């Protein structure tokens, strides 16, 4: 490979300031191998700065090597992109060790996009740095414009590629223009800011710190590595994960790019899925700032800690590895927001520091927050105080449900050509049925069993018990009673303390049997129920923790994922559950009068708190 002389090179580069700045970076990078007046055997790999386009570097590379005039075929062979853009109807051909004939310069956005054997074959891998202050002022002089002051040039050297070029091309540049630069990549949005929305109290403090950091990054007073962020938001459907990402982008003044893992997978084969995933990351890796929202992040899969021999193992290994590479090579200004209903299904490597290392669980809104959400969607036309009673009847409703309720109420008001009124919202309330006195007592007995067992077994120092008077029959499941605990920390669980957790889970059903002679279905039927929790703990003890009769490891807690174990171990799980159930039946039968007394107190007051020692206080 031969390079043109400096005079010819500068003449070629000076025709386009973007190409000139790119060429300065290429020439500077070659200092590691000697000056360009010498020939170079083999080919060079140039890795452009993060967030910079490859087009200018491709053109600059053509300007600094000897290429016959108008020989476009030779140009396309000698200067290539490691991973050229995909074109419809054309086979995608990233660089390969079997396709290096005639290559002089290979340009890559990321060294990870270049196969290792190609890197090995190269004469050198050269990392191109962004333009220096001297390069930027040289470009100004070539245009006949006054050079920047040292402070302004230093500031521009830290800016994205588009900002640098815009400043270089502007004929006159004043101090006032510096403030305009800060708003180049701010996005004007009509959606609400996160801080204008009710709820999200779990995550707002983190978001405020992020907004401050991004502002300082835009002003070039804070490095991006001290600002960059990845956050996982999890929660039940309808808790506002998608709205959170949109509202965060608005608060940051960034564009929102939304995708789902399912959309990547729907493109076809493994190669198609990887290509779709990379294209999404490329679309935000421009240095301008963006919030990348990835829904269904759990569907990205997980790598097993040990091979299972299944054919699908290789698929997930490749997908997760490629995803981790993309996360690690994110350019400046990209905030990752991932969402899932199943945080435990995510590969731990994805959640490590420097990737998606923050996690917030979005809970269902409480009564006051529900009222605030109703007021927000109603446009603030109804006093907040008037909405609190309505919110009381919407227990268990997610933010999306509340939005739909207000939308239906507004539709009713519009159909009558009037403003929204309180009665429109009241008309949308679900029909509630009242629990019978016997059902209320059963709910109270059930929760009393949990609470008394937790205190007796040293699981908690206090418990607050609450039962509901009504329920919504349209729901698939409804919570009639809840017990919250002042837990005793158990950072190093033993077989005994884990068994006690199983016992507490089964104590509610045992109390029902002790008092009424038979249990209700309220202890099972869904994930998170009493029986499901007890079964999950027993399976982990036997199949993962080695705390069964015979110490054995069938997989990590994550790998087991509450799936059935081999039959002989399931027999042991069943025996463990039976033993703890018998223990609780014995305890609740012995404490039957105490259970009934506490239950009667709960029915009378609705909410009761008890402390270790048996004292009860009506809340």
Care to describe what's here?
- By secondary structure, the chain is α/β, with parallel strands linked by helices.
- The protein has five domains: 6-129, no CATH class; 134-182, no CATH class; 194-361, P-loop containing nucleotide triphosphate hydrolases (Rossmann fold), CATH 3.40.50; 367-429, Orthogonal Bundle (Helicase, Ruva Protein, domain 3), CATH 1.10.8; 437-618, Up-down Bundle (Methane Monooxygenase Hydroxylase, Chain G, domain 1), CATH 1.20.58.
- 46% of the residues lie in helices and 11% in strands.
- The protein has 24 helices and 15 strands.
- Strands 6-7-8-5-9 form a five-stranded parallel sheet, with helices on both faces. Strands 2-3-1-4 form a four-stranded parallel sheet.
- Strand 7 (290-295), helix 14 and strand 8 form a beta-alpha-beta unit.
- The model has no long low-confidence stretch (mean pLDDT 86).
List the helices and strands and how they pair.
Layout: H1 6-13, H2 17-29, E1 44-47, H3 55-64, H4 72-78, E2 79-81, E3 105-108, H5 116-121, E4 124-127, H6 133-142, H7 150-157, H8 161-169, H9 175-182, H10 204-218, E5 229-234, H11 241-252, E6 255-260, H12 261-265, H13 270-284, E7 290-295, H14 312-328, E8 334-340, E9 358-361, H15 367-377, H16 384-392, H17 399-415, H18 422-426, E10 433-434, H19 437-456, E11 460-467, E12 470-471, E13 481-487, H20 495-516, H21 530-543, H22 557-560, H23 567-590, H24 592-605, E14 607-611, E15 616-618
Parallel strand pairs: 1-3, 1-4, 2-3, 5-8, 5-9, 6-7, 7-8
Antiparallel strand pairs: 10-12, 11-13, 11-14, 14-15
């Amino acid at each position: 490979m031969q390079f043109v002389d400096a005079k010819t090179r500068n003449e070629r580069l000076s025709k386009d300031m973007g190409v000139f700045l790119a060429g300065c970076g290429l020439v500077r990078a070659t200092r590691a191998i000697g000056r360009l007046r010498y020939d170079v055997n083999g080919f060079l790999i140039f890795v452009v700065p993060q967030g910079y386009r490859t087009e200018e570097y491709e053109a600059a590379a053509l300007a600094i090597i000897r290429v016959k005039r108008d020989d476009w075929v030779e140009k396309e062979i000698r200067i290539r992109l490691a991973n050229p853009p995909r074109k419809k109807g054309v086979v995608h051909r990233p660089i390969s060790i079997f396709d290096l004939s005639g290559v002089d310069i290979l340009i890559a956005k990321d060294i990870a996009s270049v196969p290792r054997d190609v890197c090995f074959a190269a004469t050198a891998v050269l990392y191109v740095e962004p333009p220096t202050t001297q390069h930027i002022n040289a470009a100004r002089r070539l245009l006949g414009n006054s050079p920047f002051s040292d402070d302004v040039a230093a500031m521009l050297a830290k800016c994205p590629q588009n900002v640098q070029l815009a400043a270089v091309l502007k004929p006159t540049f004043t101090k006032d223009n510096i403030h305009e630069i800060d708003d180049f990549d701010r996005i004007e949005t009509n959606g609400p800011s996160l801080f204008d929305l009710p709820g999200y109290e779990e995550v707002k403090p983190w978001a405020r710190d992020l907004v401050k950091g991004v502002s300082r990054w835009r002003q070039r007073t804070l490095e991006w590595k001290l600002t960059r962020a990845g956050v996982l938001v999890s929660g039940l459907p309808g808790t506002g994960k998608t709205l959170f990402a949109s509202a965060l982008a608005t608060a940051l003044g960034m564009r929102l790019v939304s995708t789902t893992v399912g959309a990547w997978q729907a493109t076809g084969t493994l190669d198609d899925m990887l290509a779709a995933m990379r294209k999404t990351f490329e679309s935000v890796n421009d240095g301008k700032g963006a919030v990348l929202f990835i829904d269904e992040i759990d569907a990205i899969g997980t790598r097993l800690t040990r091979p299972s021999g299944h054919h699908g193992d290789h698929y997930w290994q490749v997908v997760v590895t490629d995803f981790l590479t993309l996360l690690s090579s994110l350019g400046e200004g990209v905030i990752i927001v991932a969402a899932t209903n199943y945080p435990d299904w995510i590969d731990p490597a994805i959640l490590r520091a420097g990737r998606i290392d923050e996690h917030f669980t979005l809970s269902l809104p409480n009564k006051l927050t529900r009222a605030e959400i109703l007021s927000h969607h109603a446009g603030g036309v109804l006093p907040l105080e008037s909405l609190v009673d309505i919110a009381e009847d919407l227990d268990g409703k997610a933010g999306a449900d509340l939005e739909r309720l207000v939308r239906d109420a507004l539709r009713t008001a519009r159909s009558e050509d009037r403003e929204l009124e309180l009665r429109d919202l009241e008309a949308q309330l679900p029909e509630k049925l009242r629990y019978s006195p016997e059902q209320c007592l059963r709910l109270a007995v059930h929760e009393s069993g949990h609470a008394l067992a937790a205190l007796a077994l040293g699981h908690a120092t206090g418990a607050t018990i609450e039962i509901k008077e009504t329920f919504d029959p349209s729901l698939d499941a409804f919570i009639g009673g809840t017990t919250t605990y002042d837990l005793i920390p158990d950072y190093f669980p033993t077989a005994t303390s884990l068994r006690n957790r199983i016992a507490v889970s089964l104590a509610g059903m045992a109390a029902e049997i002790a008092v009424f002679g038979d249990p209700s279905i309220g202890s099972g039927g869904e994930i998170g129920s009493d029986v499901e929790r007890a079964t999950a703990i027993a399976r982990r003890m036997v199949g993962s923790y080695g705390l069964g009769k015979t110490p054995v490891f069938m997989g990590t807690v994550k790998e087991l994922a509450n799936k059935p174990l081999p039959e002989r171990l399931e027999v042991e799980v069943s025996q463990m559950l039976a033993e703890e159930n018998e223990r609780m039946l014995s305890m609740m039968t012995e404490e039957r009068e105490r259970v009934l007394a506490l239950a009667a107190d709960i029915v009378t007051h609705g909410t009761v708190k008890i402390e270790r020692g048996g004292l009860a206080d009506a809340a």
